[in-house]
Design goal:
Blueprint (H helix, E strand, L loop, with lengths): L1 E3 L6 H10 L7 H20 L4 E8 L2 E8 L4 E6 L3 H10 L4 E11 L5 E9 L7 E5 L2 E2 L3 H11 L6 E10 H10 L5 E9 L1 E2 L5 E2 L5 H6 L6
Parallel strand pairs: 1-10, 4-5, 4-7, 7-9, 8-9, 9-10
Antiparallel strand pairs: 2-3, 5-6, 11-12
Helix pairs in contact: 1-2, 2-3
């Protein structure tokens, strides 16, 4: 299942437009806050797909019956650009456990690249809903690797993959690499172009740098 939020009109689109705006995004705090807000909105949409059970809640005047989420998810962030989105998801799933994946993109002289693992910490995900957060899906290589890593920690009930912007090519690649069942993509927008260096156009730039400042690249 692929859900693209900017296909329908909502406040989400306002936050998305501001993250793309090269003038507004110079304010790192505002950029992080907008990414966080979009993460929260997507978390709300994901919550509609989860399992619920009845809960009897004592009030000052009686007992109320409400439907509540049966089990909190595991929220995983791809460092570092996924962190603001991750926080937005945690704002709604405040009882969730979490984990982190750090990957390195190594370029060669031909503008080809491969993604390798640097760090991975995650609780057991057996029979859990897992929410995997990133800012962007370019070629799909990083998310594909992240998904394989998750399976080393158990068999999840369902994996929800969040990205604020994805390329059409990246989505197509993930459709081929990920299973047809048990995985959902939740995207803010899908952009048409992916350059030879795997930059999304129009995209928004380097989400990690915009959120946390430029990296010291060796």
């Amino acid at each position: 299942m692929v859900t693209v939020l900017n296909k329908s009109n909502s406040l989400f689109n306002t936050f998305l437009s501001e993250t793309r705006d090269e003038l507004i995004q110079k304010d790192s705090f505002r950029f992080r806050r907008n990414m966080e807000r979009m993460g929260s909105i997507i978390a709300y949409e994901i919550s509609k797909q989860m399992e619920y059970c009845k809960l009897h809640v004592p009030t000052p005047f009686g007992i109320a019956e409400e439907q509540v989420i049966t089990d909190q998810p595991v929220v995983i962030s791809v460092l570092r650009s996924g962190l603001p989105v991750h926080q937005g998801v945690l704002n709604f799933f405040d009882g969730a456990s979490g984990g982190f994946i750090s990957m390195r993109r190594d370029n060669d002289k031909a503008d080809h690249f491969h993604v390798s693992l640097e760090y991975f910490a995650c609780p057991c995900i057996d029979s859990k809903d897992v929410i995997l957060c990133d800012a962007m899906i370019a070629s799909g290589s990083a998310i594909s690797l992240a998904y394989k890593l998750l399976l080393s920690k158990g068999t999840p009930k369902h994996v929800h993959i969040i990205a604020i912007i994805a390329s059409k090519e990246g989505v197509s690649s993930l459709r081929k690499k990920l299973p047809s069942k048990g995985v959902s993509l939740w995207l803010g927008a899908i952009d048409d172009e992916l350059t030879a260096k795997s930059y999304i156009v129009p995209g928004l730039g380097d989400a990690g740098d915009l959120a946390f400042g430029a990296k010291d690249v060796e």
